[in-house]
Automatic annotation (TrEMBL):
Belongs to the glycosyltransferase 2 family. This is GT2 family glycosyltransferase. It comes from the Bacteria. Pfam families: Glycos_transf_2. Residues 4-114 form the Glycosyltransferase 2-like domain. Keywords: Glycosyltransferase, Transferase. InterPro entries: Glyco_trans_2-like, Nucleotide-diphossugar_trans. It comes from Hymenobacter artigasi.
Amino acid sequence: MLYIIIPVFNRLPYTRGCLNSLRQQSCRDFRIIVVDDGSTDGTAQALATEFPEVEVVTGNGSLFWTAGVNAGMRRALALGATSVMTMNNDVLALPDFIEQMLACAAQYPTAVLGALELDAATGEPVYGGEQLDWSTNTRHDLLAELPPTERHGLHPVTYLPGRGLLIPLAVIEAIGLFDEKRLPHYLADFDYTSVARRHGFPVFCNYDARLSTYPDESGQTQTRNKRSLRGYLQHLFGIRGGGNLRNFTHFSLKNCPMPFLPYFLLNGYVRRLGGYFLH
């Protein structure tokens, strides 16, 4: 059984939209666990009254993304999950999303699978995975490089985000849960999928499974749109900072091949220190 794990903190309208999109799936062979990390906007009451089929794991507001996902995974495993899927609450699953993901999982039972992401406002594709050249710290955007006629099926990637990320039980048994100690929020998903790939598990972006997302609503985007000294420090050192130097260092030490590590680190530090003001 597939268990979908959704960590939430407030933003009830997004959670409601996400859960309603899962109710409309053509394939209903899954269960949902919402990890409510101390929301104060009525999320708990709404889940109880509007979505009684959803199992709720409650946190005290200190979990952040990684520990929240891990709490949901532990509960799913205790309930007998054969695979889990991490999903952010600010996504909408297109009606055949689960069907397409499970079809690929049946064909590649040890593969970690992500989804093609569409802009919820326009319907245009915005993310389709990356292949990273560790030697130059250069990211190849598959969506930009693939012609429209090839935007279907499975495409191998270096890592995947946690939005609609399907993880087989075999992967969890081999590498454990997400690294909540060193990567409490950002980069935990890229780290986990990169570690899985290095352990021999295929990592694919499934272009036939689609999610609608809100690119402008991410914490990184909002911080960059309101540039300030406080925002800059948050970007580099805050637990939710997209350019957090400590997180990047941990990710690099765990995943970058040793011959490329010095340049990869130096290049990454420069990008994070200066990139906040360039985008």
